[in-house]
Design goal:
Layout (H helix, E strand, L loop, with lengths): L2 H46 L10 H9 L7 E4 L2 E3 L6 E3 L2 E4 L3
Helix pairs in contact: 1-2
Length: about 100
Amino acid sequence: MGVSQINERQLNKNLKEIINNAATKEELEEVKKSVSDGKAAVANAITNKGVSTMIDAEFAIMADNINSIITTNDVINLASKTYTPSINNQIISAGQYIKED
């Protein structure tokens, strides 16, 4: 096997690696775009639920913001009751109240 054949094989190997790396970079850019688009969609959904969230917020901030959204599980219905905290009665109307932990 001559020197030119070895060099040609090495060149072919190098070209294949370059082509593979180029595809990997393109795929990486697609993944980055997908994550960016996904973060924007999640941030907009959180904001639509009443908790302002930037589209480039870190995932931990998005998670905190999701956890701060008040849901129906956080709301209870109470019938109208009369409470006597002092000498005078105070009436709390029927309706929805946010639970306190």
